[in-house]
Predict the structure.
Amino acid sequence: MQKLIVNGGKRLRGELSLQGSKNSALPVMAATLLCGEECVLTNCPKLSDIYAASRILNCVGCRCSFSGNTAVISSESITESSIPEELMLEMRSSIIFLGAMLGRAGECTVSCPGGCELGPRPIDMHLAALRKMGVNIRESGGKIVCRTAGRIHGAKISLPFPSVGATENIILCAVKAEGETIINNAAREPEICDLCGFLRACGAEISGDGESRIVINGKAKLHGCEYSIMPDRIAGATYLSMTAATRGEIVLKNACVGAMEPFLSVLEQTGCSIFTTEDTIYLRSGSRLKAINDRIRTMPHPGFPTDAQAVLMAALVTAEGTSVFEENIFDCRYRHTDALVKMGADIQVLGKIAVIKGVEKLCGANVEATDLRGGAAMAAAALAAEGRTEISKICHIDRGYEKIEEAVRCLGGDMERV
Ligand code: EPU
């Protein structure tokens, strides 16, 4: 089992080019199923979740190959409409292949995407929306069997909550459906816009993405294209938090500055100097960070992103004063706090609230990554801590960060994979 060994206490300083977005690449990979031709995806991050997605594509008959950060996916012939349980369980976002398979083949059998790191992650909104579009869904023996009689039709769908995955599944199912689909209370995350950008490049007719009302006009046929995946705003938030935590200085290149605004506006309140151009973020944090006065509430975009909660917390544990988080998206997203406390942090968690009283310093410790962003938060805290930290179960971190130790070393940090 691999571990990360971190010798903390060094200021991160340097230039880093941001990886492509995992949460954008995954639905785009699913969307290639709808084209029936070759698609070339550039700026595709090399991550275990991306390889899990390619195993699903291979299993249903597509051909995927990777060369550096370019993925070539051909979906000319689909030979299988069931996705085996072991592939569904490899990552939770496997569920977005359901909408894409329905759009392509009109049928699909999947299993629930499995037990959970962040609390219950039901798919009721996904299934209710697909049913509205004429999909017949039977759930039995852990399998979800979806069939349609004829072409799937468009529908007017109002989501009870702007779920990212449900919005993606509806879009994927609707782009080749008969007629118009309207999604009200749609998720507005930048990754939704990236998915729609890809689909438009394949000939789909979609408008309103990035807003709460998305309108899709179904097209009988789409075609292949070449598309560049957007930069990863959460990896960006992570490297900025690591730099702030170590009182360092970074030039983050290939950044999606607009998409990161909700995070940057909060980070700036810690006293860091932040300057941006269209695709570059410069951050300097010369002295001890200041705690954030206002409660940091995670919300759907354009609110503060839940995926950046843990990494910002890692920077705030050594800030001057008390900061308060309110986690509103997932039930169990404070699992990293025990590890931060083991390293010397003062954190009290009560339900959705976490109160962080800044301490003077952290000390290295042996910790275990609990989930992707929680693991990244431990890495950030370890870089700021005195002494050596060993992080185990880094398979969680590898799901979302491309060679995290190389990125950190390129900023002058001491992190090694053993
Ligand atoms: N929800 C339901 N029913 C549904 C769907 C969602 O109750 O049918 C609930 C969830 O349980 C959760 C909330 O709605 O409490 C938000 O879930 P959402 O569907 O928006 O999230 P997701 O699509 O499962 C994506 C990202 C997550 C990110 C969230 C929120 C991907 C692959 N995953 O998940 O990313 O936290 O949106 O922005 O895009 C990560 O990258 O570490 C990660 C967890």
